[in-house]
Design goal:
The protein is α/β, with parallel strands linked by helices and 226 residues long. It has seven helices and ten strands. The strands form two sheets. A six-stranded mixed β-sheet has the order 6-7-8-3-9-10, sandwiched between helices. Strands 2-1-4-5 form a four-stranded antiparallel β-sheet, covered by helices on one side. A hairpin with a 2-residue loop joins β4 and β5. The longest helix is centred in the last third of the chain and has 18 residues. It binds adenosine-5'-diphosphate (ADP) (2 copies).
């Protein structure tokens, strides 16, 4: 089943700049889609349109079979993990993970169950009372993912989630993300500059340039050819 589709999606910023041009892609359930391409080619803009953080100028965006062009971010059944984690510094790990659920008025007992489940998956159970400043980089990144997981979204969006981590941790977190994808059986769209991440994580890779999709293919076909 299609989990997400973009049909003739374009983005023209208010200053007239066309950042994304006629983007077409159908993503199936459980795919791990990678966006690659030079800085400024429109990767983040596309992700932000899917998240609902930017309006779509024209075209159609569907999540499942529902058109979501005009649906608010919080009602889109997606979750986004940013590269700078965007954790609330004054809140504990628990409260950081619970925040989005509280906003959605989920009952307290249910929030507690969801947070503890996510903490178990991400090995954060012993850190629930910590504030972000008392965590390592890898732990912070896991909290950011925990915040996304608790919502049990249909689609995960990750914008260079590992780019602020050192090399060793990046390799470790890459493996964790692969496991997470397996375990949750969810669709992931992932922006990266790192070819190793693209090759090891992606089921398909979307190559963008100047706001245009140049190629969509499997890692094998893209990188193994001479
Ligand atoms: P990427 O994520 O691939 O680096 P972006 O999607 O962030 O690229 O940006 C795509 C293009 O759109 C860039 O040329 C960028 O300068 C431009 N852009 C991004 N945001 C705005 C904005 N708010 N107004 C005008 N142009 C923008
Ligand atoms: P890792 O190698 O797992 O990325 P670190 O080497 O930074 O983490 O930290 C090792 C352990 O010390 C971790 O279990 C972490 O919980 C704990 N720790 C790190 N920073 C702090 C801190 N500021 N306060 C309390 N505990 C910390």
């Amino acid at each position: 089943m299609a989990s997400l589709s973009l049909e003739h999606v374009t983005k023209v910023y208010p200053n007239g700049f066309e950042a994304v041009k006629d983007f077409n892609l159908e993503i199936q359930d459980k795919e791990f889609i990678i966006f690659v391409g030079p800085s400024g080619c429109g990767k983040s803009t596309t992700l932000r349109m899917i998240a609902g953080l930017e309006d779509i100028s024209s075209g159609t965006l569907k999540i499942g079979d529902r058109v979501v062009n005009d649906v608010e971010p919080k009602d889109r059944d997606i979750a986004m993990v940013f590269q700078n984690y965007a954790l609330y510094p004054h809140m504990t790990v628990y409260d950081n993970m619970a925040f989005g659920l509280k906003l959605r008025k989920v009952p307290k007992a249910e929030i507690d169950k969801m947070v503890r489940e996510a903490a178990k998956i991400l090995d954060l159970e012993k850190l629930l009372d910590r504030k972000p400043k008392a965590l390592s980089g890898g732990q912070r990144q896991r909290v950011a993912m925990g915040r996304a997981i608790v919502r049990n979204p249909k689609v995960f969006l990750m914008d260079e989630p590992l780019s602020n981590l050192d090399a060793k941790l990046r390799v470790q977190m890459r493996t964790e993300i692969a496991k997470l994808h397996q375990r949750l059986g969810t669709t992931i769209i992932y922006v990266t500059h790192d070819q190793t991440e693209a090759m090891t994580l992606g089921t398909r890779i979307v190559v963008m340039k100047d706001g245009v999709v140049q190629q969509v293919d499997t890692p094998q076909n893209l990188y193994d050819k001479p």
